[in-house]
Known about the structure:
By secondary structure, chain A is mainly α. In chain A, 61% of the residues lie in helices and 3% in strands. Chain A starts with 12 loop residues before the first helix and ends with a helix. Helix content of chain B is 38%, strand content 5%. Chain B has a three-stranded mixed β-sheet. The longest helix of chain B is centred in the middle third of the chain and has 28 residues, at 146-173. The termini of chain B are far apart. The chains are: A mainly alpha, B mainly alpha. The interface between A and B is large, with 61 and 85 residues. Chain A: It comes from Cocos nucifera (Coconut palm).
Amino acid sequence: MAKADFKNHSLPSARIKKIMKADEDVRRIAAETPVLFSRACEMFILELTCRSWAYAEENKRRRLQKNDIAQAITRTDVFDFLVYIVPEEDLREEMNANDSLLYYYVPPHVGLWARS
Amino acid sequence: MASPVEKEKKIVLRSSDGEVFEVEEATARQSKTISNMIDDGCAEDTIPLSQVDAKTLAKVIEYCRTASPFANGINASQAGPAGVNTNLQAGWAAGTPVSPGGTASTATASGTQPPLDRRGQEHFMPITNVIRIMRMILPMHAKISDDAKVTILECVSEYISFITSEANVRCQLEQRKTIAAEDVIWAMGKLGFDDYVGPLRRFLQRYRESHEGDHSIGLRGGEHFPIVKHRRHPQITAAPSVCSQPPLMCSSMLPPPPSSSLMMPPTAPPPRFNHLSGEGSGPDYFLGMYEGGDDEGTSNSHAPPMPDFFP
């Protein structure tokens, strides 16, 4: 299925090149670079989708939703650069979940500082 | 698509803070995102743009209106202060080097360029291709919501910009003007995508091996050299008795088959010729990457030795 067919890339090289060149600092691009990106983006899509789907399953849904992607982004360090893409309300859900953990567990030394 | 009816069609856009803008379809279509959404049928009534606040959206619409031949009144309200980043993705930090800690700086600093080209359009991967890739890993019964699709598209474009920016930093440091594939792989390693590095290196190596003949000037048009990538296995097995012959340099050395089977032989020689040369064709053969391929395998390479077969 995911055979590396060099002739028919899954993702169009020309489009990849356009995105790369949207950055004005980028001058020239070696011809094989968009081909490499095509494969890299495939891997990226697979990973992001896979992680997102885990949250859909957690919530017993069959439909992958945006908040699943948001959760995957917030919980995966390497996806930190994507935090601006998902709206804050999705992130807020995630943060609230973390906050409740925070209140649940108070490290002992915090209490000490507060007292002194 | 320039019928008068469609010219007057309005698209309703809703910003993240709930403000509603009515624009002509032609104007709205200057955004590739919106254009795709219209085409995909996502724009039943209102298109929600959850990453764009009213202020930014008003500026973008204003830009599209003045750049577009279709000038018309729209419901844009306040215009924001000049110099606000006009990209549709607020905080899209294209061109901004990102610290390894992962916290991307907001894009407004020091005039970083948003990823819009001169016509103000963003670039995304084609949604069909992306969905096809997603379905590789999703279970059969899984569905994907429309906003999830759009989000993935945005993420992919952001990923490309992110990696490219880091790769470019390195190029500039080393005073190179061309971003090479190695720079991209290096950038991925640096930005935390270590798992990708190994597979991508192997991919690059196979790609280079399979394309090594492409740059040789002398090989143009003569496909009986090992750059043939699209050999069909059945061609060899389908050929009649000539197949059982050991690989020989030239088909003219074979005894002419019985007159009844004069059809097939012409197609047999090229693959064997290539096989003999061996360079690059061995690994290609068995990697299973070029299944079927396209039909160029039966190109002009069989031309030379034919006269012997046709009395």
